[in-house]
């Protein structure tokens, strides 16, 4: 049993439970500011080297496991997380996240692991392609060419503070990497080491139960930038998954690029997730939009990469209705607890920066309902377009937490374009519209899709369906790799590269590329199908 | 008509023929060392800015062209290149490449453009995915999510010296980028400005004939590193395609990464393309392999990214047979002309570096048959494994040109692994084997696929079939982007990124993502198909 009482302050290095470290730290309950037992070791170079080296040694065998083996492994991890006693309570103690949200996050996390088990079994992620040869072609015979995507090698995953389950030890990056056939070395987030121990133990146990190489999974603790850089620069590491701040993400990217052999860093960073409210929508449901906005901004205390931080609204009388409804929603809402005292301090600084801009007006704040040390006071501002444009840099910068700025614009047909042309890359952009707005919206969609990874219509950007079609990515600085996604089944593609086999004898071909293989979709001689070749 | 006589020393900037520049240069006939008329202008900052700015302005309209329009445009370029008078002669004069090879390269180039026309029409490159919504799902409605891949924006393409047609102005990078919907700014290679003018004129004419935005295509001249860096750093440029040296490629990568908004550089760089000869193959066809090796090494005077520079052979008596056959093939072969005098000088230096290693033996040189100024003397060396391992760095470095080193190894089952574990990333690796070698080869294939992008069985790595299944890529330093290919239909993927549409009204969805769309393969609710949704 792995309840809270069992926490032993361990790292997991290739199947070994390691409790020694270069210094120790404890999690802090952000509600009370008190330290939580047990103490956790910070990894030193030897720990890191042991974990990364074991991952490199495990890679050869792990990548050759069958789809069935990897799927069963992923499902065992999901089952283990669902069953882990004390997990939800420890997440709450370490993060201040509301219990019902943690339960939902746990469901998302385990569903995600099971989804990647399905992806492995489906097999189409391998991108199989075949062009049959023709030895009789003149002047030169046509070679037989086939390719598939293979795993890159050991992946370093950095746990994120804001999703202690879904973007951490067994989160999306880990699920995608393990599904791809890559061993994983997790650097657990220092804000939730106990959560990480519980989940790490589930994975380590599953590695053992399924007879996989011990180095398939390791998890180390530590909070120093030097440790993070050393992990990214370790020669055994082949790719990096990260979700967090722009500053930290760019530091990892720089570290990866300065290696003798550069490696990709899939960093998901800052986004303000702009919302555009069209005149028809404003006219017909201003109050509903105002209330929905606050519901979205309050979700997870705004500590979501998709939290809407900027809302552009026509300066009609209904804009006031929208703001009044939003203010009313805030008045009846509670302040809350943030992930860490440091994040709460950053939030307060960010709110103060917005507040200090002349021409920005405070509309409402939710001040009641929390006496947390890491307290978040959800805040609503408004301003006009000229103020926004004059102070674009500070007003467009992400403030992590429940705060949003409504910007009144005069002429939607011109001003929305002006706004979009100056936007940095975004994870999402949202449109509130009615059929009569579609004409105007069509042009905005054309521009917005160049700026954002996901366009949301008549909904809110928070909340992410994890499936085949979702994209959680976007142009820099939303991510460091705009051609990829960190959520959804396509996320596996980040950890793969293609290899072609020319005129390979059948017995030296990977099974999935042989003529007789069935059941996996592939493109053969220009046609898609899941049957045998020549059958 | 665009024969040699018509050459006017022009750049093409958004439909304008530009003949002024910051200084002028002429091509040099590598056979004679004489300058070729006319003089070509070197682009200055204003030219570059005009070309990149026009590309940015063209992007919006060009990316919205229909598949039929882009396919017709690509086919017009192909037809124009096939029909361009004087093209083959000018390529020959500027590059020293043999006429029949130029004709073959022209065919490959125009076939490649037509292949990408087919790719555009096929449409599956868009990676369409749909997950239908379910408004009745509890506790939360399931959103409708759909995604497609859209073009990145203007692409900078650097012409390569060694393929004046297939990897230059209208080469693979340009074809893939234009197919994707990206405008292209070509920096023509300074070794073949006349060839570039002829091909550039064909593209510029096609842009006009098809009524496309003028900035869809521009081509500038110049040879300074500063110009190259300025192009990569121009804010309008969204991605870069490059084939050439490691030094130049890494300089472009560094420039791209130092931008305020970093962009991807798809650089194909150094590779020595190792060959592994297994005992059974050596026993049954040593002389054939020796002759085939020299044929491959002589192809294009070894100035191919896939030229085999290292051959590992069991130290059996038949190894001598292989070397004798190779030496005989070299003895009857001719020396030849290289692309430029500078490349010939680099080749001589590289050969001298190998020659200077104690323990390396010169087997044969082809000294007759050419009095070119940029003369290549094809050369065959041999050595033993201990010498190779002791001087690994110099003996594993690519020498661009017709030179190869045969390394005798004692124990294939151990020594091949030792060799592979120390290899840098490669574009290709080749295996010569017979059925009795398959047991040993299986393990080597496992290792080689982690090192190379294409494995060739019982054939030679030179010569590349351009189709769906080919991969021309590989781990660093073979390329800067190992998850991609620069040849074959997948090359289009380099210039795309995904965008998801959540709950989009049908009339605001891209056509290909609407329920009723037919004829393009997409993955809808977990199933592949090319029919309508719900039909």
UniProtKB/TrEMBL annotation, chains A, B:
Alphabetized UniProt keyword annotations: Oxidoreductase
Pfam families xref list: Aldedh
Transmembrane segments: none
Residue ranges of every copy of the Aldehyde dehydrogenase domain listed in the record: 24-412
Name of the featured protein: Aldehyde dehydrogenase (NADP(+))
Source organism per UniProt: Ammonicoccus fulvus
